[in-house]
Amino acid sequence: MGRDFASTLDIEASLSRAIEHITDYVDAEGGALFMLDDAGETLRCHASVGATEITGMTLNSGQGIVGRCVQSNASEIIRDVTKDPDFHGGVDEKTGYTTRSILCAPMSVKDECLGAIELINKRGGDGLFEDSDLHLLQAMSASAGMAILNARMAEALVEQERLARELELAAEIQRSLLPDQSDKDFPIVGINHPARTVSGDFYDFFPLDDGRICFNLGDVSGKGMNAALLMAKTASLYRCLGKTIRKPGRLMARVNAEICETATRGMFVTLAGGIYDPATGVVRLSNAGHEPPLFHQPDGQFKAFPAEAPPVGITPILADGDEFPESEVQLDGGTLYIFTDGVTEGYLEDGRELEVEGFKASIRDNASLDARGRLEVVIDLIKRGDTALRDDLTLLAIDDAAGLAMRQSDRGMAAVSSEADGGDDDEDLLLTLNVPSRADRLKLIRNAVSETALFCGCQKDMARDIVIAVDEACQNIIRHAYGGSPNGEIELKICRGDGELIILLRDFAETIDISKVKPRDLDDIKPGGLGTHFIREVMDDVEFLTPPLDGGNLLRMMKRL
Amino acid sequence: MNHEVKEQGGAVIVALEGDVDLQSSPDARKVLLECVGKRMPVLVDLSKVGYIDSSGVASLVESLQSARKSGSTLILVLVSEGARRVLELARLDKVFTICDTIEDGLAEVQ
Quick one: pLDDT band at residue A88, thresholds 50, 70, 90? Predict the structure, then answer.
């Protein structure tokens, strides 16, 4: 019987077989197995055999001979039921069967009674049970009780195992949300070390098509599955929206609006995110209630960037209107660190917390390691002292050392090659023109462009269209890039390629946010956007090329001839 | 850019001449709004406008809106090829009433 319970996890089937065996062995006409429900209030017949089919019947836990047996946790023999006041005659009335003698023994393990087994009428003879029958039933009831308990525990274990497996699967999905770090030369590295299987922390980074890199690191309030789910949602939102919204403060506001709309009450995310430009070393950062990121300056000093806005998911209404505040930092070869409070509040070997000072000291002491190495040292410090981690450990480092080296060598290269650079090899240079950023010089540009287009064999209409596009593009430079200042310079270059005219416009102003340059909805006609609309209408291809290394903007427009 | 304003047949006729671009559009805007301020229908003669850019077009739109707000009207007459192309690009050729002669224009605003 024990083997039966162990080999099958279907407890009900095993109970049926057990009551058959026992009834048979004691040579009774019928048998029934009752179990107490979880509350201990009801006895339910889980299996019956022989004389009467009463499977499914329920009794109050004190009712009848079974009830008495369970309550007292003692076995009973009633040789003659007619002499027992507790005998529940209702069953006989329904089944038409005559009960003469009953054996009943509790199924108990230690002091816990799980139920009882009741046998009815001895086969043959006078149909009455003997004391020896009771001893037999007692022994078998006890072992049935043990087997049921074992089976229940096995079932709980299986369920636990299943949950653990599901958690492991969830953790695997979570890990897949973290960015790929196979490129060892990538300037951003991150580490996430969950305290439990799944994590409420996350970090991410991905390159944008203009060469800049979008990054973030966040910490969801709470731990466990609910935190992990909100983490997955926030990380996905940020990654998706981050590909089109190139302003960290605006991106943060969009993520916040989404999370506020649907997040569970009381849950929030502290989040720091931004954009790093390896070509300039500039980081634009927005901090929503997160632990202040630390900038390790090239001179060895640390600078913190405390949050100027509440965590994401707290309120859709922002103090500064539509955007979260942003700060800008020129890394200039230094490293920006972002981390969760699991790191600064992690225990060291001596029982103290690491704290921000400990973090700074570790970074300073390990300056010779690469960024990943420096983060791993911090993780090791905490894992050594805090073996059962209190909180997830997550760190991100944006290391500008390689970016700085590249910028320095490029500057040298640019000085050498700028003279030779006359556009692509198979392009025929027609004109270069350097003009001050003044509105009264636009006419000169228009005339030069018009003559150049006609020179290339353009029809009058097409030449006029090209003039409109170039004029509007120059206006944008004067008004937006130089902010109306007449002291800037515009460089115009026109080349003839294979069946196309290529116009390059270069300025030396601050690099502009390309995502903002878009044709305005024509229903809302104001100057400004209209010019950009003209350019797109007229030209076959318009794109901002990667900004030149010494700054500014480079617009390339192409018209098919 | 030069301009000439005259009153004729109960309307103001303003002729712009030359290039209406980033340099001159603030002047054009001022002249156009002054004409609209006379509370008479305004005919803008664009026959001598060789080039007009987005800022010039914006001045025309602003003047049209201002005229409509005061219950008056502003139409374009004798639109040069160059100006017409820019209006087409801005999809404004259907927003403005455009007449081919001054006479048609005056008849239109009566």
Answer: low
Contact between B21 and A443 using a beta-carbon 8 Å cutoff:
yes
Phi, psi (deg, nearest 5) at residue B49: -90, 110
Is the same domain home to A88 and A190?
A: no
Residue range B1-20, pLDDT digits in tens: 899 999 998 999 999 999 99
Q: What would the two tokens of residue A372 be?
A: 């990943």
Residues A25 and A54 in one domain: yes
The domain that holds A197 is classified in CATH as: 3.60.40.10
- Two tokens, residue A276: 């790093």
Token couple for A549: 């290394």
Q: Which CATH number applies to B2-109?
A: 3.30.750.24
Inter-chain CB proximity B22 and A439 less than 8 Å: yes
Does A28 map to a domain? yes
Number of structural domains (chain A) is 3
Lowest-pLDDT range, A54-68, A179-193, A214-228, A399-413? A399-413
CA distance B9 to B28: 23
Q: What is the pLDDT of residue A357?
A: 93
Residue numbers of the domain that contains A528: 422-560
A17-53 burial code (b ≥16 CB/10 A, e <16): ebbebbbeebebbbbbbbbbeeeeeebebbbbbbbbe
Q: How far is B16 from chain A (nearest CA, A)?
A: 17
Report if residue A413 sits inside a domain.
Answer: no
The CA-atom distances, in angstroms, between A133 and each of A98, A101, A252, A360, B98 are 20, 12, 78, 79, 116
What single-letter DSSP state applies at residue A546? P
Q: Give this complex's ipTM.
A: 0.91
Is residue A167 in a domain? no
A472/B53 CB distance under 8 A: yes
Q: Where are the domains of chain B?
A: 2-109
